[in-house]
Amino acid sequence: MKNKISRERLSSVGFEKVDPSLLEPAIRESFVRRQHAIELKLDGLTGAEIHRITGLPESEITRFFKRYTALTEEGIFWGESALIPQSRIVSYQRRKPLEKKGSEQKGGMSGALSYTLAKFPTISEKFKAAVFRTDLEYACGSRYDKRQLCNIFYDICAAAGLTAEDWPFNQARGARRTITRYIDKLLNDDFQRAALATGGSIALIHSKVGTGYSPFLESCDVYDLIEIDSYHVDAFFVLNISGDKRTKTKDVISRIWLMAAICRRSNAILATKFVFASEVRSQDLVDLICEAYVGGWAPREILNVKDLRYSELSGMPCYSVPKLRHHIWGGICLDNAMQHHANKVYELALHSLGFSINFGPLGQPARRPNIERLFKRIATKVMHQLPSTTGSSPADGRADAPEKAAIRYQIDVDDALEVMDVYTANYNGTPQGGMNKANSPLDILRDYCANDDLLIPATPESYINSVSLGSSTREVKVTGSIKHGIRPRIKLDQAIYTSTELANSPHLIGKKLTIRIKPHDYRYVEAYIDDGIYLGMLTVEASWRHIAHSVTTRKLVNRALAKKEFQIAEGQHPVLAWQKHLIANASPANARELKRLQEERCDTSQLIPKGQVEIVPEQPSNSVSERWRFLDILN
């Protein structure tokens, strides 16, 4: 009789293999005979011929071949593992009905669980939902108690119609050991669902790592993939509004974010950015990408924190290796945060700079291992060593009174910016293991640029200037009326813009202009007519004109005005009125916004009028918080 299963099909479907040398000597000989018999049958020999060679009965050869070609739950053949003596390929199924058992009678209950589940299928369905907690909406991650699950099993059995005379109620201890083993089997059969049920969302995230499958983006070179993410800084800081660090302040700032871009191959930090807001905005991501791409970093000339210094080998990539400025990226790895899906991010990445965006699946931060490792290192070596730290959670590393500690020790946010700037620069010059093989990230980048056989892809600077990197465009309708004597103008975020060219072009009234906006100085915008012809620079009305401000600041001021949170006096600049309101109504959120305004304008004297708050120029001083000197990075 011709075999229905050939060697070709075995190879295509797959089968389990066994190394005979690892078997016990008592069963090794039997296994080898059975293996030889199957090989002969696959070669086309008859049962009689195989019996003459191996000595196995023809009926046994047929039985072994059926076991050999049976399919596992994974969809492959059992193969050689089915030939091991005393091995099972099908779990035991009880067919004999359960009989009434005496109180002292032992045995006779083999397969009672499988028999009960087969007779009452609803028990299995409901109990699986309880084991994996799919019947509860918000229970995953809480304490997992198998004893409680046994009680749930009893309730399900009772609801299915089982009485005190039936299994498991007729058992002395309720068959808890059998039910517990059944729970373990269910958990072992589905690792991800078991991780979610027993350990919560964090365990589910970890379960998606180390699956044995090769990653889709496995091998990459320098700047092929850039990982970008944000980290919520776990600490309180104080904000010196006056700028004089000799004056103690009680203005506390919290919930600030650190954004970073890191090269996956070299592990080099391309750029960092502190965000003083409750949440990261899409414009913050655009700013970080532009900074990492252009590379405008330079070491600080003055450092106020005692013993803080840049190492000789420190620096950022574009500063230490100028050839990398405007180097083309292959793609960026982001998570699925809402701000990452903004149109301005797509416009910058896909159209202006020409690299891809890889968001990846939800809930898998391990796709960005380098950036996650960096943030963990910053947390443990810097932020969690401060007396004002909030720790990873209230039960993990949180100081007793972090807000009071920030005021008591004057842990200044400006000092934190200095420490992080030096730390990231020194990080790039520190030798690392892994793929770097004891080389620093900057060493990897220098070796990459020193390869004469490699053509370094770079964007021409003329193109960077032509696209006005980081800017955004908007279509706006020109308003005005010759009849009422209103000259042509446009309106952007509740402010009027015009120019001499536009004011004397009444033929443009009612038509749309393309406006190019530089997000960090909203006083001036570029206007283009429908054919792409440059019309000129438009200037905002007088009330917004004299102090540089960003699009974000304008929107925040307008939103606060709409909510009637503050008022603007006649002739008062809106930004100054906004800042005065923030100072008068001190809170962590307002302190955070004040710091954002300070970062927006490097010179604080342009933001705060003289006479309202005393401005004292910062000088290098050792009077800053002595708590910084205990950090590992300074020792």
UniProtKB/TrEMBL annotation:
<dbReference type="GO" id="GO:0003676">
    <property type="term" value="F:nucleic acid binding"/>
</dbReference>
<protein>
    <recommendedName>
        <fullName>Integrase catalytic domain-containing protein</fullName>
    </recommendedName>
</protein>
<dbReference type="InterPro" id="IPR036397">
    <property type="entry name" value="RNaseH_sf"/>
</dbReference>
